[in-house]
Amino acid sequence: MPTPEPPQSTDPDAVNVPDSEADHGERTRAADPWTQMPDDALNASGVGADRSDGPDEGSDEGSDDASSAQGREGAEEGPVKGVRGARSEGATTERAESWADFLPSPVFLLVLGLAGFAGWLSWTHAELDWADEGTSVTPLIPPLLILLGWIVSVAVHEFAHALAAYLAGDRSLRGSAYLRFNPFAYREAFGGLVLPVVYLGLGGFGLNGPPTYVDWERVPSRGRRIMVALAGPLASLVLSALLALTVSLLVPVGQDTTNWAISSIAFLSLANLTSAVVNLLPVPGLDGYHVLAAFRGARWTEFVRVNGLFCSIAVFAVLWLPVVRDVFEKSAYALFDLLLPNPTIPGMMFHGKLLLQFWA
Predict the structure, then answer these.
(1) Exposed / middle / buried, residue 166 (Cβ in 10 Å: 0-12, 13-18, 19+)
(2) Which ranges constitute the DSSP H helices of the chain?
(3) Which of 43, 129, 235, 308 has the lowest CB atom count within 10 Å?
(4) How many Å apart are CA 234 and CA 111, to the nearest integer?
(5) What's the per-residue H, E or C state across 131-143?
(6) Residues with Cβ < 8 Å from 340, sequence gap 6 or more?
(7) Rounded to whole angstroms, how far apart are CA atoms 311 and 314?
(8) Element (H, E) at 121
(9) Tens of pLDDT along 306-329?
């Protein structure tokens, strides 16, 4: 049966204005694939359940207003739900703090084990047994022992800084490589590990990089900042004293030795002493500068945070000058003569330096 046509207006002055909103709603429904799909096309429960069978005629404007209001509500509610969801997810995946954050890392234990093995090979002069009789030998295991021992010393120095900073209020270092004795995972590995090794190999004295990893703004008081700055040199002094005491126990007073392991330990004692003494200088790039910065304000701390690495290299360049280096080394040997009862220990230290700089 043919569909009757709607009556046409015969008024010539009447203007036929299309209902743009109704046409837009009709076009939207026609383009929506969900309205063209049979109800039983989806075999999933709940999919499309919120889709109505279709709006009543004449209610296009109301349905559009409702859908736009729902869209605005979803747009306002969506970011809030997203933030809450991200926070809840971050709360569940955040690493829980524990006492294991302060345990030495396996890398540090490996370095200690390698140092002990190199020490045993140096003690027994194993390289002489490996070479043919009458062949000159340049020992390479003692330099390795000194290098590994110095890496351990650097880790102890930086651990003291990090532990003092953590106790003083800088909680960001918990679980970091600085508190786990892992210099290979330092955030500033070049200034914290590479440069100290280069300083020792080229200059023959110990010097640590600046502790730029400490967030000094989280350390509230002046006294705590001084404690953090002095913790590293103090740890180096204690380590130097322990190594010197070990040499004094191994070599009685009045006796001398050329044992590679003992000479290496003696030189490591000298390297830790020089590191402590030099870092106490109130020069940018050194720990003594942060003692002054505690009295001067945040601008001084920010200066060394940006330029501390270059200042450390400049300090090494000055100490590397032959005139300055000779005076510095003689003063360090004289200090050991004054503090230790065995006058032969400075000679062992010099022998250890020769073992390290085998290319010189």
Answers:
(1) buried
(2) 20-31, 33-36, 60-93, 106-123, 126-130, 141-168, 189, 195-203, 222-250, 260-279, 287-296, 298-320, 322-339, 345-356
(3) 43
(4) 23
(5) CCCCCCCCCCHHH
(6) 244, 248
(7) 5
(8) helix 106-123
(9) 787 888 899 999 999 999 999 999
Residues in contact with 170: Cβ distance below 8 Å, sequence separation at least 6, in sequence order:
214, 215, 216, 218, 219, 228
pTM across the whole model? 0.72
Residue 184 DSSP symbol: G
Mean pLDDT of the region 131-144: 87
CB-based contacts of 212, cutoff 8 Å, min separation 6: 188, 191, 304, 305, 308, 309
**Inter-CA distances, 260 with 18, 120, 126, 245, Å:** 101, 10, 10, 17
Q: Most distant CA pair in the chain: distance in Å?
A: 132
For the chain, report the end-to-end CA distance as a whole number of angstroms: 112
Model pLDDT for residues 231-254, shown as the tens digit of each residue:
999 999 999 999 999 999 999 887
SS3 state of residue 61: helix
Give residue 254's region: left, alpha or beta (phi > 0; psi -120 to 50). Answer: left
* C-alpha of 38 from chain center: 60
How buried is residue 175: exposed, middle or buried, by Cβ count under 10 Å (0-12/13-18/19+)?
A: middle
Residue 1 pLDDT > 60: no
- Find tokens 């869209």 and name the residue: 71
Handedness of CA 224, 225, 230, 232 (dihedral sign): positive
CA-nearest of 184, 290, 176, 175 to 232 is 290
CA distance 140 to 110: 20
Cβ–Cβ under 8 Å, residues 301 and 293: yes
Q: The tokens 């400049």 sit on which residue?
A: 314
- 182 close to 103: Cβ distance less than 8 angstroms: no
Residue with tokens 């995946």: 93
Describe the chain by its helix, strand, coil percentages, rounded to 5.
65, 0, 35
